[in-house]
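Hey all, quick one. A colleague (J.T.) asked me to put the BIS(adenosine)-5'-pentaphosphate job into the tracker so the inputs and the structure tokens live in one place instead of scattered across chat threads. No bug as far as I know, just bookkeeping. Sequence used:
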Amino acid sequence: MSSIVLFGPPGAGKGTQAAAIMEKTGLPQVSTGDMLRLALSNRTELGLEAKGYMEAGKLVPDELILSLIQERLKEDDAAGGVLFDGFPRTIPQAESLSEITELSMVISIEVPDDNIIERIVGRRMDSETGDIYHIKFKPAPSEIENRLVQRKDDTEETVRSRLDAYHSQTATLADYYADMGILKKVDGDREIIEVTNSIFNLLV
Ligand code: AP5
């Protein structure tokens, strides 16, 4: 199977839907955001270089992202295709990706900007499993409440920068993939399960 890209603004629900798609397709999730956060918590050179950009809500330079992706795609589990989450985010990233792997589909999860801040500021993660919750839209079970953490870049101020970066540098990729005939739009402004069902309909 070739690879799939999950595309959309911060807080669109890419990580949430990736978990369901992985379960259905068996494709491994390749999230550049998760990889950068891991690199940072391991204090690797790349992670430390990326830190300032991430905390400011700016895009990490393409060459750092592409070196992460090139290494990840060499792993055995990537041989049958992967589910990209949050990558590519610039035209140079998309052009480099097209040289190294084939894409079957780019799923664009569409959510109006007005909803993004509430989604991001209310997001909580399970520090053990990485599962994604929301204080209002997807409350965590009470027995794991003490494990919930908030991402450092999930502040209102940083989200505004991330949205700016999305509109100025990333949104144009929708046209790029529409021209290639592989862009599929999904209305992400609905219940999580309804979004999942629409995505599953695209996968059959
Ligand atoms: P990254 O980690 O990729 O962050 P992001 O794109 O901003 O996306 P998010 O993880 O914030 O949101 P999501 O769409 O996954 O939403 P989620 O499912 O969690 O990147 C972080 C940083 O790393 C970037 O700012 C940049 O610096 C750097 N970076 C990463 N990749 C890069 C690249 N390729 N190039 C350059 N720099 C890069 O959902 C959000 C919340 O909403 C959750 O609480 C969830 O429960 C809730 N929710 C989900 N769906 C719904 C729904 N339908 N209704 C109500 N609530 C919902």
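Adding what we noticed when we looked at it: DSSP finds nine helices and eight strands in the chain. Strands lie at 3-7, 29-31, 83-85, 103-110, 123-126, 132-134, 148-149, 183-187.
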